[in-house]
Design brief:
By secondary structure, the chain is an all-alpha fold. It has one domain: Non-ribosomal Peptide Synthetase Peptidyl Carrier Protein, Chain A. Helix content is 64%, strand content 0%. It contains four helices and no strands. It is globular and about 30 Å long.
Length: 64
């Protein structure tokens, strides 16, 4: 199951940033991937939809 989650997260980042999946690892940071704050919001929005979750704004801002 954790591998499926990682694959889904990588797939979302790939679609938002339009970078090849092999350029992304589970250890990659947003900074390393060139993800700015607008991209980050788009990634969070896609994650919420894909996993049917809600990420509170305060948690999104702090990264915790």
């Amino acid at each position: 199951m954790p591998d499926q989650i990682a694959e889904k997260v990588i797939s979302i980042i790939t679609s938002v940033k339009r970078i090849p999946p092999d350029a992304i690892s589970i250890e990659s940071t947003f900074e390393q991937l060139g993800i700015d704050s607008l991209d980050g919001i788009n990634v969070l929005y896609e994650l919420e939809g894909a996993f049917n979750i809600s990420i509170p704004d305060e948690q999104a801002k702090t990264g915790n």
